[in-house]
């Protein structure tokens, strides 16, 4: 993601929210579909997250910063009995996803189009079976590292809302951010890195559909790392 500090919301972990103008179909979906799928954080969160969905679900997962939604859409199809909550503040990505989700008739998804920390603070304790954070903005300049989503406070948030045994998955093509994440995880008492060999972080996740961003990174010679951590 580009570094657009001047256009981001104060204190947020993301950059710009608006890019190219939306196509008419996307704009219509934002007006008509997004309100029905958006979570209302001004109301108390349900004690049971399954109650957020219009179809029966056995577990609920969260994907933070889903980009164009390739993975999120793929997961909602693979696991119809799992509820997915997707967070994406970038308008173009959200619009692309809701058009695709609407056309596919997805019912097991809810959305949040602002800062993920507010959502994390809203969610009940131990309600999530997993959290995915794929290719987050690396904020490459050292003075901006405080904007990286992986930090001690956010790992505390993750630990509060994840069930014991739940998995936090992190993918990035930026080696320094991968190292940063491992350092933060290793000093956090509630998470454990479960890799036993190099193949465990070099190999994509089971059923991984790939993303356009990932394909671009590989073309440019940046190889991703796929990390998995378990909530103790």
Q: What are the main properties of this structure?
A:
232 residues; alpha/beta; Rossmann fold; 7-stranded mixed β-sheet; 9 helices; 7 strands; globular; tRNA (guanine-N(7)-)-methyltransferase; tRNA_(Gua-N-7)_MeTrfase_Trmb; tRNA (guanine(46)-N7)-methyltransferase activity; methyltransferase
Low-pLDDT runs of 5+ residues are: 1-11
The CATH architecture can be named as: 3-Layer(aba) Sandwich
- Estimate the helix proportion, in percent: 25-40%
Give me the CATH superfamily.
Vaccinia Virus protein VP39
Fraction in beta strands: 15-25%
Kindly provide the name of the CATH class. Alpha Beta
Mean pLDDT: 92
- Number of helices in the DSSP assignment: 9
Structural classification:
alpha/beta
N→C terminal distance: 31 Å
Shape: globular
What is the count of β-strands?
A: 7
Strands side by side in the biggest sheet: 3-2-1-4-5-7-6
Spatial extent as radius of gyration: 17 Å
Major sheet description: 7 strands, mixed
The string of secondary-structure elements, in order, is: HHEHEHEHEHEHEHHE
CATH fold topology: Rossmann fold
The figure for the number of domains is 1
């Amino acid at each position: 993601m580009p570094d657009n500090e001047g256009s981001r919301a104060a204190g947020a972990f993301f950059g710009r929210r608006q890019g190219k103008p939306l196509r008419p179909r996307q704009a219509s979906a934002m007006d008509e579909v997004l309100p029905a799928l958006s979570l209302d954080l001004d109301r108390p969160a349900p004690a049971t997250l399954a109650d957020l969905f219009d179809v029966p679900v056995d577990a609920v997962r969260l994907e933070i910063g889903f980009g164009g939604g390739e993975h999120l859409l793929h997961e909602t199809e693979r696991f119809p009995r799992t509820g997915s909550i997707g967070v994406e503040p970038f308008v173009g990505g959200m619009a692309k996803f809701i058009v695709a989700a609407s056309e596919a008739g997805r019912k097991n998804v809810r959305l949040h189009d602002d800062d993920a920390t507010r959502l994390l603070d809203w969610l009940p304790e131990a309600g999530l079976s997993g959290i995915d954070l794929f290719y987050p903005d690396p904020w490459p300049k050292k003075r901006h590292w405080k904007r990286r989503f992986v930090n001690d406070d956010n790992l505390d948030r993750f630990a509060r809302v994840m069930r014991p045994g739940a998995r936090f998955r992190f993918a990035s093509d930026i080696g320094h951010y991968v190292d940063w994440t491992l350092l933060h995880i290793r000093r956090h008492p509630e998470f454990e890195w479960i890799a036993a060999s190099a193949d465990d972080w070099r190999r994509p996740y089971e059923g991984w559909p790939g993303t356009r961003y990932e394909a671009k990174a590989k073309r440019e010679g940046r190889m991703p790392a796929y990390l998995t951590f378990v909530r103790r």
